[in-house]
Design goal:
The chain is mainly alpha-helical and 248 residues long. It has eleven helices and two strands; from the N terminus they run ααααααααααββα. The chain has a two-stranded antiparallel sheet. Strand 1 and strand 2 form a beta hairpin. Helix 9 packs antiparallel against helix 10 and helix 10 crosses helix 11. The relative contact order is 0.15.
Length: 248
């Protein structure tokens, strides 16, 4: 009996030490940027991209990619929310009762979203107005909740942090590519600056490509074109990486 109590106390002490170090046993044995940890960052950029492979977070990819600036801000906002939400849930994973884990996750994500929203309103108010309700909808983003449930609840803090950064980067990469294509071809601008030249009332008054007769493609500014651009990205990705093609 005494031996059993001693063994249990030793186990508890080990768990406390683990929580202090924020590392699990497996994480202590490998370097911070081991091959497995680097894979957490690189996989979501291609082989396991949240949008093009898992088909999650499509709504914001359609709605906020008319211009590059809000897409970049949205990508940074999601990265901040995912990274810190993963860290917090990983820290609390041994204390969260299974029956209320979804509620706890929602509270954590909502708190992070409110914090990010207030920072945007304070330092980037115009972009915050452009993003409008979509910042709040990060709370229900399948990517965020999915990584908390599938990864942060079962892994240490460092791995969870890398997983959050990696998946947010994969999500943000697609947003930025789509916004780049749509703003460039739809209005001839990037970040609001004219990059294809200036379009005047006549060809003589125009500069750059517009002086050669180029016209902006207004269809690129419509929401359906975002879906088509995402579809083209998925096609290119699968043509380049054949292992992503589903077998019949």
């Amino acid at each position: 009996m005494a031996k059993e109590k001693k063994y249990n106390s030793a186990k508890e002490e080990e768990k406390k030490q683990e929580m202090i170090l924020f590392l699990s046993d497996s994480e202590e044995k490998e370097s911070f940027l081991s091959r497995a940890n680097r894979k957490l960052l690189s996989d979501p950029l291609d082989d396991n991209n949240p949008i093009t492979v898992q088909v999650l977070g499509i709504c914001s990819a359609l709605a906020i990619t008319v211009q590059l600036e809000p897409a970049v801000v949205m990508a940074i906002a999601v990265m901040a929310v995912m990274a810190f939400s993963n860290v917090i849930i990983s820290l609390l994973r041994n204390m969260i009762p299974s029956r209320i884990r979804i509620i706890v996750q929602l509270v954590v994500v909502a708190s992070m979203v409110i914090l990010v929203d207030q920072v945007l309103k304070a330092y980037a108010y115009d972009v915050s107005k452009q993003l409008a309700v979509f910042i709040g909808l990060i709370i229900t983003n399948c990517i965020v909740m999915g990584r908390l449930e599938a990864f942060a609840l079962g892994n240490g803090v460092w791995k969870s942090f890398l997983d959050g950064i990696g998946n947010a980067a994969g999500y943000g990469l697609i947003l930025i590519i789509v916004a780049f294509i749509r703003e460039l071809l739809g209005s001839g601008k990037l970040f609001g600056f004219e990059v294809l030249g200036h379009k005047g009332a006549t060809l003589a008054d125009s500069t750059g490509l517009y002086a050669l007769g180029y016209e902006n493609n207004g269809l690129m500014l419509l929401s359906p074109m975002a879906l088509i651009v995402v579809g083209v990205i998925i096609w290119v990705q699968r043509a380049r990486n054949r292992k992503l093609i589903e077998e019949n």
